[in-house]
Amino acid sequence: MSVPNHPAETPVPPVPELDLSSAAVTERPPGVLRSGLRLWRTRVGLIFVTILVAIALFGRYIAPYSESKGIALPNQPPGETRLPSTFGSGYKGQDVWTRFLYGGRPILISAFLATVLALFLGTLIGLVAAYNRGKLDDFLMRVMDVILALPQIIAALVVLSMFGATTTVIVLTVGISTAPRIARVVRGTAVSVVERDFVAAAESLGESKTRILISELLPNVTAPLLVEANLRLTFSIGVIAGIGFLGFTPDPSAANWGLMIFQNKGGIVPNHWGVTLPVAALALLTIGTGMMGDGFSRATGGIDRARGDA
Amino acid sequence: MDEAVTIRNLRIEVAETGADIVDEINLTIAPGEVLGLVGESGSGKTTVGLAVLGHARHGVKLARGDVTIGDAAMLSLGDVALRHARGRLVSYVPQDPSTALNPALRINKQLIEVLEFHNFGGSDAARRERVQEVMNEVLLPSTPEFLRRYPHQLSGGQQQRVGLAMAFACRPSVIVLDEPTTGLDVSTQAHVLTTIRELCHAHRVAALYVTHDLAVVANLADQVAVMYAGRIVEQGPAAELFQNPCHPYTRHLIAAAPDMSIDHEMIGLSGRAPAPGKRPVGCSFAKRCELATDECRAEFPAERVVAPGRIARCIRPFEVPVRTQHVAVHSSPIAASATHALMVRDLCASYTRHQVVHNVDLHVDRGECLALVGESGSGKTTLSRSIGGLHREWTGEILLGSERLAQSARDRTTAQRLRIQYVFQNPYSSLQPRRMIGDSVARPLLIGGASKTDAARKVGEMLERVALTASYASRFPDQLSGGERQRVAIARALVSRPEVLVCDEVTSALDVLVQASIVELLGELRRDLGLAMLFVTHNLPLVASIADQVAVLADGKIVESGPTERVLRYPEAEYTKRLIADTPQISELPER
Question: Which of B261, B290, B409 is the closest to A203 by Cβ?
Fold first, then answer.
């Protein structure tokens, strides 16, 4: 180095030790969950979902009658029932409000379980496929493509007519037919994560494959996974309500929003409430989960994130 | 003399918050002159470059000041006038030519388009002639078959030359070049730089050359302006500025720059430049400056002429901070043992059946650093990944002490894996973003069977050892700067007390001051812990500061190896000679 050093005129002060700890700790950008909840669409969605989940789970405890008690002749509008009723009677003369309060739980529980199953299977398959590129990846993803090629509701109907419409079969059918969509999303995200050096660092330390999947890859695909899970929950509710509408429910005499629409559609002229209530509930539930999903996906995509950190 | 471009009192801010990205920028460039605008990432140099084109990125506002080119005030032109000025009056060469060229159009079409838009030449025949001419100017073939190529059919250097041809096509009076050679190999870089200089001088084009690379500027620019935290702290003629820097920051930059002179020690500087909106009232460098006084902290020093033709914003110009003075540190050689710490014999590695490394032999002893130098595509990363067990398609022998290593890390024993550790190029990619620093650093210990409390204590110690504090253990990677991340990565590699450390381009993603402090740290750790280090790099000057031995890799073969001093001073292989000649150096300013 040929830079001549000019001698300093004043005696040189001791070199100040630079204190690293005093440097302000950079704040972390909020995660998907928190930044998603800052958006109004997520909040509104969350309110819808909370209300309907509360109705579905706890509605039966405020129901005026028991689930199958007849209160009037079939399809009587409010005010013309034998026993007092806000929303009149349904196709068998049972109280519409009571049936409504009872009818959410089976759909919600099976939709939730089906989504959890789909999440588990889809994430596992997606991560394994992304990490083991090559033959295993090809095989797994082609299997997923085959399942995707079948229309979900038709496949569900075939399986349900073969094995009977028990809750287990419904959950398994909907769960398995939903898994490929999640697997695709997870694999797509994980493929780019696998390329990153921290995975190579874990490999060079000899971490087990399971550990790499769970503690290196999984935490880095959660954002799109959350969005996808939300979307799949919305779709599962729709599919299971649809199956119910077509008469495939574990217990045909029990209240079920999907089935209720089918049963009361004949009496829609004298008493529309038998259809309106479950339709409104299902609509609000799917719209609510949809809005939440949309809010979270905006948070991951950064569309609504505060700018200005240039 | 009439200036080609004048920037006066330019302030650019974040539109939303009004925080200053750059402020009080005054620059002039004469026709035919190259001005090097030097700064670290985040200093605002690119923002200034774009302002010359009358452009501000999204969310950024040109708040105050003038940019005048000829008689055009770039900042007050309307959209249409601005479109016509760009390309004709002032043109731009971006950093990455592969993304700057339209991949779907033949290069001839792209060049003709520029000329047609500005109605240059008047007729199609004249424009075709101009394409031929400008291709010759940038030293590319102007044959029809070459012009019919698509960008992907060209090499990186050729792509950048096409970018230059497009920029020079309409004979602009000003050209802005934003790190145009960053992605190129040194030999390609040298040729592109020569072309830029000759074109600017021959056609009287004023060039604003934006870069972080001091050595490039030292060799290319007539004038240099140094930016720090959004302000120009010093400017002057290149030769004088590098011979005798005035601002302490410039001194630090030069002290930190790698250089091939053999007794050169790179000196880093801790801390980081204040971000927009967090800048102090006084001199923004005061916090990191050992010469700072209360006066510096009270008010930002005004621009003043410190020597003929030289302007600086410092109240203590030409004083020398102690930390920039070179102290020669000589490593005492550790007694040689019978076996090498790491030995590679007859290693051949291939990538999808294509052989990229041919019969390589090398060895590293305890406490020794071997630099593996090569340009992109030389096979250096494949070689180092084979040693680290991350690449398994290889044959030959890798011996760790006296043990023969298996192909992949998974087939090696835990002890072997811990004895040889790998530090990756990009610290933004090598730390799991969702895991706390402490947990990342503790993994090697836990794998080695340490208890959790024991691991936590050692992690704390190791973080201190790499000049961080134990409190970093509870932070996440996104709270750390690039240099801090790389320190964490080094801590993770060293926490299990390995014998061999493989460093793969560990400083190439870092700024020059940070690079210097990482190199300092690695040198210190190597001496103290007796590490055998394999330092893989494309940066030849870096080698002088860190390595005892050098092996030069070209096309997968070692073309030359030996002690650093011997190889750098008296290279034998043609390839090494060319590499050294093409590498720009601060200490060897060209005669003007």
Answer: B409
Q: Are A205 and B290 an interchain contact pair (Cβ–Cβ within 8 Å)? A: no
Q: Would an 8 Å CB–CB cutoff place A210 in contact with chain B?
A: no
Residue B379 near residue B555, CB atoms below 8 Å: yes
CB contact under 8 A, A9 and B319: yes
Is there a contact between A233 and A289 (Cβ–Cβ < 8 Å)? yes
Alpha carbons A304 and B449: distance in angstroms, whole number? 46
Asked if A149 reaches chain B (Cβ–Cβ under 8 Å), the answer is no
Q: Which residue of B has its CA nearest to A193?
A: B429
Residue B563, SS3 per DSSP = strand
For B544, nearest residue in chain A (alpha carbons): A1
The answer to whether the beta carbons of residues A130 and A97 sit under 8 Å apart is no
- In the DSSP assignment, the letter for residue A214 is I
Residue A114: closest CA among A151, A156, A146: A156
- H or E segment to which residue A198 belongs: helix A197-204
Is B434 in contact with A204 (Cβ distance < 8 A)?
no
Q: Where are the beta strands (DSSP E) in B179-250?
A: 206-211, 223-228, 231-237
Answer whether B409 sits within 8 Å of A29, measured CB to CB. Answer: no
Cβ separation of A220 and B388 shorter than 8 Å? no
In the numeric block, which tokens belong to residue B127? 């424009």
Identify the residue whose tokens are 């820097």. Answer: B245
Q: Chain B contact for A25, CB < 8 A?
A: yes
In terms of Cα–Cα distance, which of A257, A238, A231, A287 is closest to A118? A231
State pLDDT tens for residues B406-459.
Answer: 988 889 999 999 999 999 988 888 999 889 999 999 999 999 888 999 999 999
To the nearest whole Å, the CA of A307 is away from the closest chain B CA by: 8
Q: Which stretches of B435-554 are DSSP H helices?
A: 437-447, 452-465, 482-494, 512-529, 540-546
pLDDT, one tens digit per residue, over A10-59 is: 333 333 333 333 344 566 666 777 777 888 888 999 999 999 999 999 98
ipTM of the complex: 0.79
Is A310 within 8 Å of chain B by CB? yes
3-state secondary structure B277-341: CCCCCCCCCHHHCCCCCHHHHHCCCCCEEEECCEEECCCCCCCCCHHHCCCCCCCCCCCCCCCCC
SS3 B454: helix
CB-nearest to B447 from A20, A206, A219 is A206
Integer Cα distance of B454 and B475 in angstroms: 20
